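user:
I keep going back and forth on a fold encoding question. Separate attempts, laid side by side, tell us more than any discussion would. Would you put together a sequence-and-structure record for a protein of your own picking? Write it directly below this note and I will take it from there.

assistant:
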Amino acid sequence: MESFERPFGDESGPVQAPMHPAWIRIMPCSIELFRTVPSLNPFPAGWWADAFPEDDIWNEPVWCDPGDVDDWIAEASEHHLGASPEVVEKEAREEYDRATAERSERIDTFTTHCRRAGLPVPHTVRDLLEFLLALGLYRSEQRDGGLYVAPQLYINPFDVLSFDKLEAIEEAADQRGDLEELTAIAIRRVGGVDYEFDDEGRFVLPGNAKSATVDVSLAALAEDAGVPAPVIRGMLMELAEDGDVAGSVDLGAVPVGDTFTLTASDDLLGGYPNDELLPPEHA
């Protein structure tokens, strides 16, 4: 996606490095660590160990541990006080099975990508940094006798990974879904949409309204979503075609910084109740 370009400037941090949304689905959970950097310019490769001195950060596993199913049941029991223990346990076990299956599928897919790229499968955080460097998602240089690195996580997976025809079609659809989710979250957050969850855990707008009307700008939505404004514009135009949003202006022509009124359906807003894009097993 051409719109995800290399950022310029002399930002210093810690800052959040721009990252193509698809890497949240494709990479191990610990990719989040490498989004946090002291600067977008080259910095010492050992910075993360200095930032987290109490942890053996380099030997941490790259994938999150889902824990034991009994822990999931205990936590579910604390949040569903009115339900019978049998129902709570059944639902917790089903959710645990879903999450662990998603995790296993992601590990298998990531392993396949590693092998196609001719790179070792990362098992530790140190391995993952070496993988990112080899794949070109981080660049490196020698400086003052040490290794310096800088993030390039904005690169589209299509530019560095191999997909067969069916996989490419699925990945393109998934990337479109990522952008829809980020856009929906941004509309809700930037617009300050009030909502709650009913007794069955369903997203509900005040008064059971079927839509929410908010004041937004492309610039504000883009900043919240962490994607370029032209991408947000395109996504809103698609959602408008589908009937999920309606703008008070021509969404294809409104200046990026101008505030306008946007109406979004409860189906769109409630379809993505998280505050950020999450890996499938964490959603």
Remarks:
- The first strand starts at residue 12 and ends at 16.
- The beta strands are 12-16, 36-39, 43-44, 138-143, 146-151, 196-197, 203-204, 211-217, 245-247, 259-265.
- Residues 170-274 form a domain with the Arc Repressor Mutant, subunit A fold (CATH 1.10.10.10).
- The chain has two domains: 12-162, 170-274.
